[in-house]
Amino acid sequence: MREWITGRNPVYEVLRARRRQIFRLVLAQGNRPEGQVPQILQMARERRLRVEEAPRDRLDNLGINHQGVALETSGYPYAALEDLIANAQSKIEPPFFLLLDLIQDPQNLATLLRTAEAMGIHGVVIPASKAAQVTPAVVHSSSGACEHLLIAQYNLVQAMERFKRLDVWVYGLDEDQRSRTPDQLRLDSGCALVVGNEGSGLRELVRKRCDQLMKLPMFGQIESLNAAAAGSIALYLARQARGK
To answer: Which of 16, 71, 138, 227 shows its CA 20 to 30 Å from the CA of 7?
Structure first.
């Protein structure tokens, strides 16, 4: 399956990651060689890619905010769960995973993936159905960050059990009365953070399989944060606790 990635940052990161099959690069006629365009053209030459020029309105049909650059590629390269585990084991630090329980808003998914990549996550697990997937829109919204992540489509409960056998603590974000604050948890050891659906939170079976539930203390007038904001803060706190 082929798809179009548009925008300078997303196209640049797809080419830099070198994980997809690339078919052609299309530039809008009159596009100035500024920003990341020179680097994109250099990588295209190195890979002997077919480069075309086309009217800007043709690119308008390929994606929003294309900035005069579009790349035709193969679909997103999902990884196997064992690839995530192997990646974690290759690092000189405890495992660090993110699991997303039916995140449905592509923008929320993109935000969480961008934060996860910035925090050095070893892998992300998402359900294969009933949830947002890594589409060109998500690639664009994450500024291409998802191209550098290992993302597996896998049953979340089974993934949690697999991680537990590796001595990874599974922490679910939840506002339950039993939930503990981040300073009460061992975020400096191997851990997997689970972020629930935007409206209903964690599914009951997923919640029950968590080792502990975690809540973020609130100091203002609102009672909670949305999934993307809460998950991003939790990822940062976990990275901070790890000391790297």
So the answer is: 227
User: What is the pLDDT at residue 170?
Assistant: 98
Angle at alpha carbon of residue 13, lines to 108 and 244, rounded to 5°: 70
Say how far apart CA 164 and CA 62 lie, in whole Å: 43
Question: What pairing do the DSSP bridges indicate for beta strands 69-74 and 22-28?
Answer: antiparallel
Domain co-membership, 129 together with 33: no
Q: Of 26, 59, 74, which residue is a domain's last?
A: 74
- Give the pLDDT confidence score for residue 15 in this predicted structure: 98
d(CA 80, CA 125): 10
**In the chain, how many domains are there?**
2
Amino acid (1-letter code) at residue 179: S
**Confidence band (pLDDT; 50, 70, 90) for 63?**
confident
**Residues 53 and 110 reside in one and the same domain:** no
Residue with tokens 């949690």: 160
DSSP-derived pairing of the beta strands 69-74 and 50-54:
unpaired
